[in-house]
Amino acid sequence: MWLSLFVLSGALSVGAVVGGINPYDYIGNKAIAVIANEQKEPKPEVKVGKPHDIEQALPKNTASGNFRVFLGEAIKSKTTGAVIDAEGNAIVPAGYVYSFHNTPNEASQGSNKISEILYIDKFNPASAPLTKYLRVQSVVDPAKVTVTPFLIKVKPEEGATLNDRVTGRPDQYKSADKDGNATFVLLEDKNQLYYGNSNTELYKVDSTVKTKLTDAEVDKFTTNKDQVIEAKIVLDGETAIRQFTLYVETLKVSGVNPVLESVETRRDKDNRYGNFNLKPTIPALLAAGENPDYYTITFHKTTADAIANKEALDITKPIEGAHGTDVTARIAYKLAKSANPIVSTAQKVKFTVIDKPTIPALPNVSYCDSKIASYSLTIDGQTTVIADGRPIATEEEMAKPDFDPKGKYSIGYFNSEEDAIANTNKIVGVEITVNLDEARKIWTRLTSLEDNNFNTAFFYASLGYDNLKTVDVSGRTFEYCQIENASGNSTINLRTYENAILGKSSVTNIPDTNPTKKIMAVYYKDEADALVDRRMPDSLVTAYPIKMGEVKGPIYTRVVMTEGFKCMADNFSTFKVSLGVELAIDYLPKQSEQQLCINTDNNEIIPVTLSIENKDVKGRAITIDWQREKSRNNGLIFYESLPNTADKTSIQVDKPGNYRAVANYASAPYPGVVSCSASSIVWTVKAPPKVVVEGADETGMINSMEVDEKGETMVRLGVLDGGTSTVTDGYEFAIDNSAFQPSSQFYNVPIGEHVAYARNIKTGCSASIKFSVFGYPKYFTPNGDGYNDTWNIPGLKGHNEARIYIYDKSGRLLKQLSPHTEGWDGTWNGKQMPSTDYWFTVEFVNDYKTPDERNGRKVSYKGHFSLKR
User: 3-state SS of 517-577?
Assistant: First the structure.
């Protein structure tokens, strides 16, 4: 029988699966302990590997214009079978799922997934390589998403074989039926391996044995295990082989029905009840070695609820259950790939309530005297309360050979709950020594000697102060503010101003009124309750009813010591409370961090709009002061009002800085009651992003010694995003007419002028900058050693029209040369020139590999280098 769920502290234990074993042995079960430890300890960050690029030859003319690629080869190499990248990181780590996408934005959002078989009709090889994106996401933490591009390359026709042209097939997944079988249809796999070629045979592979599938088996292949299928394609005297796997998915559950044990918490005429913690049973529901993080496990009152997946129990706290009842576990596998994954509702968790001896509520043993450092308290009076009329046997009686335990009990006292449960390290004697300002928690154990069932409870032994004082706040009205609702009724927390009653100050050089920090305030409805210490329940203290605009009181209060002490101040005080209106304001945009953008059409700043919306329930007028941070000094922030913005509900800002809007009511909503401004957010408006080209000088030129003889180099970009250091996270990048990519590195960038672009992925805010690539040696050493004896610009060898002119400091032309020559040897008119700096100019024509308006433009560069002898 089920009653409403509630939380109640108590000794929870987990029992044996089929009964019998000690509940504490079950808690210590190694598998469960390991899982618990793993959940508490920080786990190493998983590094997601880089997918493989895919290279595939085009089909022969019989299927020209069509191109079909198996994208699964990005996560498992067709040539090597590797599922890790060059650094040894798994491309799809354990506990992750993957999908393929056409764009980085779609991959980031997980939208518009594309099939693992990519089919391109009327494919144009000139557009290759193609870029696709792999999204890898953790099932444990769905926020952990990695998006990585990979390339689809067309393998050159020369030397291409049938094996290079055949498209692989994805693995298939089916859920097992009640008999453990799954049925697959393989006809499409047979026909689609090579553009409808019919000369294909399928084999099932068992270890080293291969058995050809019949036509009937191709149409309907039934298996109860993971089965490797091999396809053999024959065409024009060539043979190609591909393998894929048929996976029969089953849930790896233990089949166990765990039993939970609980101390009895209450009983009625029908049953006994306990509180049960379901979390520790999760590992026991799964097969050994399975990671619970990869499963969705919920608990339901009935099997019908589990099947319908409704009304799942909240297992973050213990639930109440009756002896002999159970709950049904619903188990689903997060990593399942079947179209209709199996869900198990066959296992239950059973509840057993242990018949424990009850212990009445125990009073604390407390003494109040500020003049002594310690005190010995007698606890033998607790024995009478715990016994509650039951016969208690002494140690001497229990030691006798003829001792009859029937109907008798023992009582012990301990310093910890662990000792009380284990019945070790008993406190000897009947006195407990405590120091001033100390409340010792003393545990007691009541054991039924007849069946050894026991229960535990605790009380405090304490020594507190007898000189506590309640600060006189009788002349004060504590002011509260809230957003007004339509009814005008509300509640407040009386503890908000508690430090004033306790005599605690936030100023360090003002001593506290009371000698201890172990104090709190208690509250009374009236003086009569204060005189007899009849306190308000805490539920009323923290939700004290009051109307908007009301001043209420007097409320009575007294300082007392915290749990475990009975000491209190001998005086009480009174105070009043008032409830005023806090402005109901929506600040827009709600995100405190904003960024200015540049309009790329006219290179002007696009301003950010800041606004507020008055949500006052009665539509009362407000005043608005728009402000911008002016300065900071010693931790204080100073603002200045923005001109011509007073009382505007929205403004546009085109300068970076920190902004805020200070709003107030135009007139007091309730005269005599203090109202409050709204809590304002501060908008940090950042400067527009600025693209940074790594290694470029103040003119935007990259002088890179890595420019190769083809006139190409690697360029790395970054963004100044309102700070002093460049960032790349959150941005995508492009150079010239290339597509945007998440990587900030670009390879094979030719010499000449370029434009770099950066775009914020979330906001779309973009920026660009012009730069140029040019590389030349900074020095040369014409000493005849055969190394670096001449100076030239090798990156210009692809430009037949290029001419290089070398000058001395006076501007005298020393040498005119072509990049195809050996270069300048450091002489002029047969004479060796001295070790010093020399200048050069070079002229050539831009020659981009992609269509660009700058193609054919004459470009010139100037620079200098050193001659060293």
Answer: CCEEEEEECCHHHHHCCCCCCHHHHCCEEEECCCEEEEEEEEEEECCCCCCECCCCEEEEE
